[in-house]
Specification:
This protein is mainly beta. The chain has a single domain, classed as YmcC-like fold. Helices cover about 5% and strands about 65% of the residues. It is built from one helix and 14 strands; from the N terminus they run H-E-E-E-E-E-E-E-E-E-E-E-E-E-E. The strands form two sheets. Strands 3-4-5-6-7-8-9-10-11-12-13-14 form a twelve-stranded antiparallel beta barrel. The chain is globular. The N terminus is likely disordered.
Length: about 200
């Protein structure tokens, strides 16, 4: 279960401004956040499913609640928001990330880079991230995609540290998530995506 949590917490950075709470939350073309959007992943140790279960406010920030289950057991819930800078993690399981952290830039371009330094009520997230490519072809069980590839170096998420690589496909979101934390390697590949409404 710790591996599943690592896989969705490691791509992070601050973003100071967000959409007004009354705006509809649809995400971006590379990370849809409509209620019902569901990602089914083949995971190193079983099956992982992430679903947008609802939209709700955290303070004045309109968020999508992404519930992740590993082998049918809920392991965590992320609050994610669309900001003018991109998709940001606002918090996990009721713990607020200060500052909020960028997961995917709004207008990703090759070599765009950012630093992460956030505290989620005691869980520290750090790392140096960059957009490695904007049209990288990959194949996962769900099919072939042209993806935006984001890589992280010197990533720290809680007690884990290492490297990260995430591929985002247009209209789908994360299709491959990889982490190398030395003795632990994590790889999630999309088996099926169900669009939300």
């Amino acid at each position: 279960m710790a591996f599943a949590r690592i896989a969705f917490l490691a791509l992070l950075l601050a973003a100071p401004a967000w959409l007004p709470a009354d705006e509809p939350l649809v995400g971006t073309e590379y990370y849809p956040l409509q209620v019902g959007a569901t990602w089914h992943y083949r995971f190193t140790q079983g099956k992982t499913v992430t679903r947008v279960v609802k939209h709700e406010k955290i303070g004045e920030i309109q968020c999508a609640v992404l519930e992740t289950k590993h082998n049918d057991k809920v392991v965590f819930r992320n609050h994610v928001a669309l900001t003018k800078d991109g998709i940001c993690l606002i918090g996990t399981d009721g713990k607020k990330a200060v500052p909020p952290v960028l997961q995917l830039p709004a207008a990703p371009t090759k070599d765009f880079a950012w630093e992460v330094d956030s505290n989620e009520e005691g869980t520290i997230h750090r790392g140096a991230y960059s957009v490695q490519s904007v049209d990288e072809p990959i194949e996962v069980p769900a099919g072939k995609y042209s993806t935006i590839c984001v890589v992280g170096e010197n990533v720290e998420s809680g007690k884990a540290s290492g490297k990260a690589k995430i591929h985002f496909a247009k209209g789908v979101g994360p299709v491959r998530v990889e982490f190398d934390f030395g003795t632990v390697t994590v790889k999630l590949e999309l088996e099926k995506f169900e669009a939300g409404k």
